[in-house]
Write a structure and sequence with these properties.
Length: 230
């Protein structure tokens, strides 16, 4: 394995890493930037956020047509000409977009940075036609969403209290993200079209007694021998 090397330094809380277009994209929170970096360490600022915006708690993903979405006080979309328009009037922290253009965002309505008492969070769905609805609630600090087969997302989980549920699993239990089963949620019905993946069963070859308890076989053979007429 090659030795790890520093690709970039001097960043201000890099978050929301994505692999897109052959480059590593991420949010440079403190500098309010969206940055793309080549593997040789060449970085390019792709988007600069409003200096008056909050420096923390935003992330990125792409619609199927390649337009960039960002979160924050609202979900915004970057048009082909570089302009930013409002995609949804919804405050959000993280975002993940599926192949159909449905954007899932999470968040909680309390000021985490200011130290306000925590409130339960949510996951909401923004459909391609702009409809917004909540699909999961009562989540304790939702963080680290993922989407099956997502080519951009590198799932992360911020360290926290041990009793905090994983948003992906919690969302599955509430039917918010029904595209794959959640391992470990015993007793929960699987979504249609999903079958549990069982490990392959080992079938011993003919004459292979290694899988049996040979001690039991020897004792049984000994008992049979004692019953035979002398």
């Amino acid at each position: 394995m090659p030795e790890p090397r520093i690709l970039l330094s001097g960043l201000g809380i890099p978050e929301s890493p994505r692999w897109h277009g052959g480059r590593l994209w991420f949010c440079n929170w403190i500098d309010r930037q969206v940055v793309a970096a080549d593997m040789d360490g060449t970085a390019e600022v792709m988007l600069t956020r409003d200096p008056a915006s909050h420096s923390m708690g935003y992330s990125i993903d792409w619609l199927p047509d390649g337009r960039l979405l960002t979160t924050g006080d609202k979900v915004r979309r970057q048009e082909p000409d570089g302009s930013m328009v409002v995609h949804a009037e919804q405050r959000a922290s993280e975002i993940v977009v599926d192949a159909g253009g449905n954007a899932y965002v999470n968040g909680a309505d309390f000021d985490f940075v200011a130290g306000a008492p925590p409130k339960p969070g949510y996951i909401k769905l923004v459909t391609p036609d702009g409809q917004l609805r909540q699909v999961a609630g009562d989540l304790q600090f939702p963080n680290g969403m993922d989407q099956p087969g997502h080519q951009h997302h590198q799932p992360c989980r911020r360290p926290g209290a041990g009793d905090r549920p994983q948003p992906r699993r919690a969302a599955c239990r509430r039917g918010a993200l029904p595209r794959r089963p959640c391992p470990g949620d015993r007793g929960q019905p699987l979504p249609a079209g999903n079958k549990p993946q069982m490990p392959p069963r080992r079938v011993p070859a003919r004459g292979d007694d290694s899988w049996r308890n040979r001690g039991h076989r020897r004792r049984a053979a000994s008992r049979r021998g004692k019953r035979q007429p002398g």
